[in-house]
């Protein structure tokens, strides 16, 4: 069965003629939704019979389409170049290939009539454009359905991103919130038979509708203790993560600071303790935040001793934030970030600059040590004699 199509647009330009025969070619008569645009243009200025645009939704039959193509090709160059794709897409690769072919024909002064179409439409490309460098203007065929699908896809993407931002773990003493904890991911690992076994605790701790068990937690003005209770973690029926924090006045800085003194893992009557006071700290009125807090790979959590069971465990937080004092409402205070002012890049720049300054200083010093001659031969006077001694 012959293909049928819809004639969308036909234009003549004062520049070298470009004709856009934008039809929707139906490849399968039983599936009329599979329509492919067809674009036709020429390299020369030609005079074509006027063609009134059809009404919206008009379907051009096979004979009508064939008749128009015959009239167009009769008046245009007889060298026909067909660009046929498996799926009609508009991208840099297709435009580059077409440009190379037509540039070669233009260099050799070969007139042509070009047709661009495909065997089937693209699900993602509902618009098609032709670069003006191919010999004429640029036409953009857009579909309302495509724009609506793009808006729906963008809306779903924003909803997905919003869903990933969940509330922190919140412990209240009475009606007041005193401890907040948040992390993008939380996992623990144990070393067994020479290999690490991992367990992800993120879904059990954070997320919409998740309420971790916090019994055993407590807080006052100087101490805070947050206990996360789990079950069946890496073969242990009872498993706890305990954050022990204190705040005190440091006379050197004349302000109060809080520290994460210890992160404890309690499981089936055994306790593993990580010391975090040396790295996890912030002013008492701030929260503490760090992109990565772990007991391995640049560890901020260190086992309390070489014989502590913590040496058999790994703990990892990603995008970690905690506040144990001076919490106002259910939101974190200003975050004191663990990233230092002097990053590796800054140090590299400073060391390179210092090296260049040292080289420049040495060069200037050598130049200043140069001495010029202070005596010269007088052609009218006696020659200068330089005594040579053994």
What does this structure look like?
Strands 6, 7, 8, 9, 16, 18 and 19 form a 7-stranded mixed sheet that branches. Strands 10, 11, 12, 13, 14, 15 and 17 form a 7-stranded antiparallel sheet that branches. Strands 3-5-4 form a 3-stranded mixed sheet, with no helix packed on it. By secondary structure, the chain is of the alpha+beta class. A hairpin with a 2-residue loop joins strand 6 and strand 7 (176-182). The longest helix has 25 residues, at 344-368. It has 2 domains: 25-151, no CATH class; 169-337, Porin, CATH 2.40.160. The chain is built from 5 helices and 19 strands. It has helices spanning 62-75, 92-107, 144-163, 202-205, 344-368; strands spanning 25-26, 35-36, 39-42, 80-88, 113-121, 169-173, 176-182, 185-192, 195-200, 218-219, 223-233, 236-250, 255-267, 270-275, 281-283, 287-294, 302-303, 313-323, 335-337. Mean pLDDT is 77; it is low at 1-33 and 124-144. Helices cover 20% and strands 32% of the residues.
